[in-house]
Amino acid sequence: MAQTQNIDLARELLAALDEGRPPEAVAALFANDVLFEIPGDTGVLPWIGQRSGRRAVADFVASTRAMTELLTFKVEDVMASDARAVIVGELATRIKATDKVVETAFAIVLTIQAAGSCGFRCSRTASPSRWQGARDTLAARRSSLPALLPSLKE
What we know:
- By secondary structure, the protein is of the alpha+beta class.
- The protein has five helices and six strands; from the N terminus they run H-H-E-E-H-E-E-E-E-H-H.
């Protein structure tokens, strides 16, 4: 049952982003104490690093919308265990300040706690083809996904 609810949470997040809901409405999908992390060189972009609270989610949504133009967003899969949901896909975005287009593969890991708290971690690579092996492995092991997901936490 928790797996189904976690997939529903991931799909609700995707719908909120796709519909262009206000940043505060997207943030409201998370608990007040959400742990929000996007690994990378902190200081380069305002959404890189580890923060907490709904404000972190709202700031991420607002700043990515202000600084980038989403060109494509393709969800490859949404998977879940009792404690996590993972959204895997690829996107292309144009950086408004430089007009540069960046293509990247991503994995968004939502960690759901029993008390309703939810963590957000987004990992990405600049080369979508680098993730093909990982996607193939996940597809082949789909039946053993609950055992596989804890290893994605790092």
